[in-house]
UniProtKB/TrEMBL annotation:
<feature type="domain" description="CENP-V/GFA">
    <location>
        <begin position="5"/>
        <end position="134"/>
    </location>
</feature>
<dbReference type="GO" id="GO:0016846">
    <property type="term" value="F:carbon-sulfur lyase activity"/>
</dbReference>
<comment type="similarity">
    <text>Belongs to the Gfa family.</text>
</comment>
<protein>
    <submittedName>
        <fullName>GFA family protein</fullName>
    </submittedName>
</protein>
<dbReference type="Pfam" id="PF04828">
    <property type="entry name" value="GFA"/>
</dbReference>
<dbReference type="InterPro" id="IPR006913">
    <property type="entry name" value="CENP-V/GFA"/>
</dbReference>
<dbReference type="InterPro" id="IPR011057">
    <property type="entry name" value="Mss4-like_sf"/>
</dbReference>
<keyword id="KW-0456">Lyase</keyword>
<dbReference type="GO" id="GO:0046872">
    <property type="term" value="F:metal ion binding"/>
</dbReference>
<keyword id="KW-0479">Metal-binding</keyword>
<keyword id="KW-0862">Zinc</keyword>
Length: 138
C-alpha cells in the first residue's frame, strides 16, 4: 500500500502512516500548545482513526481544557514526543488530533486556520488571508 505521508517521534520508536489527507489542519496559539511545542504555536492535523496506522508503544497524559473538554495526549515513552491527542468523551467521532511532523511532504500539514490567536505571541504574524479565531471555533 502506498501512504500519503509517514512520520515518527524523535527516537523512531513510534511511527505513523497516514493513508488519506487530514480533515483539517490548525495552528493553535494557546498557551498550552506553546508549552507543548516550545514554539509560538503547535500544528494539529485532524484525522480519522481509520486513515492512520500507528506503530509503537505509547504512554498517556491528560488535562481538562478551558472548554471543559478532556484532552488526552499519547506520547512516546522514550523520547517524550507527543504523537496525538484525543477526547475520551468523543470516541464516537473516531477522530484524533495528530501532532503532525514528517520528513517527506510538509504541505500535507499546512495550517488552514489559526486558533487561539487571543494568546498568540505578539511578534508572530499570521500569514495574510489565513482564517483566524480568537479561541476554539465551534
Amino acid at each position: 500500500m502506498s501512504y500519503l505521508v509517514e512520520g515518527a517521534c524523535q527516537c523512531g520508536q513510534v511511527s505513523y502512516k497516514l493513508n488519506k489527507p487530514p480533515i483539517a489542519v490548525f495552528a493553535c496559539h494557546c498557551i498550552e500548545c506553546q508549552k507543548l511545542s516550545t514554539a509560538p504555536f503547535s500544528v494539529t492535523a485532524i484525522v480519522r482513526t481509520e486513515d492512520i496506522d500507528i506503530d509503537g508503544e505509547l504512554k498517556e497524559w491528560g488535562r481538562l481544557a478551558e472548554s471543559g473538554n478532556k484532552n488526552v495526549a499519547k506520547f512516546c515513552p522514550d523520547c517524550g514526543n507527543r504523537v496525538y491527542h484525543y477526547n475520551p468523551d468523543e470516541l464516537s467521532t473516531l477522530k484524533l488530533k495528530l501532532k503532525a511532523s514528517s520528513e517527506e511532504d510538509h504541505s500535507v500539514f499546512e495550517p488552514q486556520a489559526h486558533v487561539w490567536v487571543s494568546e498568540k505571541q505578539d511578534w508572530y504574524q499570521v500569514p495574510e488571508g489565513v482564517p483566524t479565531y480568537d479561541k476554539q471555533p465551534s
